[in-house]
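**Protein fold record**
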Amino acid sequence: MMTPAADNEPRRGTRLTAWKVLVCYGCAGLFTMLVLATLVGAVSALIPESWSEKITVWQLFMYAGLFFSILLFSKFIGDLWRGSGEDLKLGFTDLPNPFYDEEFIKAPLHLQKQISKLQKELQIAQEERKRATSIGRDLNAQALKQEQIIASLSKKLTVLTRHHDNGRRLVGSAAYLLYKEEDWRSEMMNNILAEAITCLEKDQSDKSVALFKTHGDELRIEHYIRLSARSARRARFKKGEGFAGMIMESSKEEYISDVSLYSEIFGDIKPSDDYKSIVGLPIRVDDDILGVLCVQSEVVDGFTSQDLRTLRFYAHACALIFVYDIMVTKMSTEGVERDDN
């Protein structure tokens, strides 16, 4: 049993047989003749008797047919010219077509309305597509920006976590070595410098470290990582001399992102080890400079502002060792004095 919706659905794919087509056009022809006969009778009744000798009904229809034929043929040619972008072919010559209209639709009136409606809908759809594309592009840009922010925060969090673990290991190692009464100084300096370059944001594999200690008014390398032994032993800087001496004199941390731009600071006293950027931090207690911590990178702009904040912790850790040296020296001196007394 068919549902009402199925009853109302138009049948598709059916085609009239040949005899039905002939009957259709035959009936249309009879209807046209009937309409024409009616018009002829109506016009004959309306024509005044004074006109009947000069013009007949058929002549009126002939003139009217000629008029409409000229009108339709003119419209046909005009539509052809408006709808074609080619030159006008007049038989004896070709002329540029000044009548071409890109928006003109060459079709019956009802089709023109439908096509115009579809064109407007297509234009709206294209504008919506452009707007959607623009929104999608903006969303992709925002998503990429957020991904970069998340990646940066993730990297910072990783560095902070590693920094926390490094600090925990250093404190635990110092406590263990002191408890065992072992010579902890050299091992702790190596641990501090090794841990210092593992918690930087940029690539750590290109970093080298030099820990300077003051000996009177001179700086000497006390411990180092990834420097040549020759450079470590020959490096001696007075206050204000070289990069480390500049840090000692100013008592301020400095970061040079491109060493080649500051030849007046380094000059001939630059160590033979190749590095492109450097950061230096004073190891200070009150107003006394106990040493300088220098970290070098083999690339230009090898550090971030976060790296500077991180390295301050390790500079303070180095300060503890230098303060320990001072305390041992004072205790040793006081012990000698007591023996003398």
About this structure: The chain has a mean pLDDT of 79. The first helix runs from residue 4 to 8. Residues 183-333 form a domain with the Beta-Lactamase fold (CATH 3.30.450.40). Residues 308 and 340 are 48 Å apart (CA to CA).
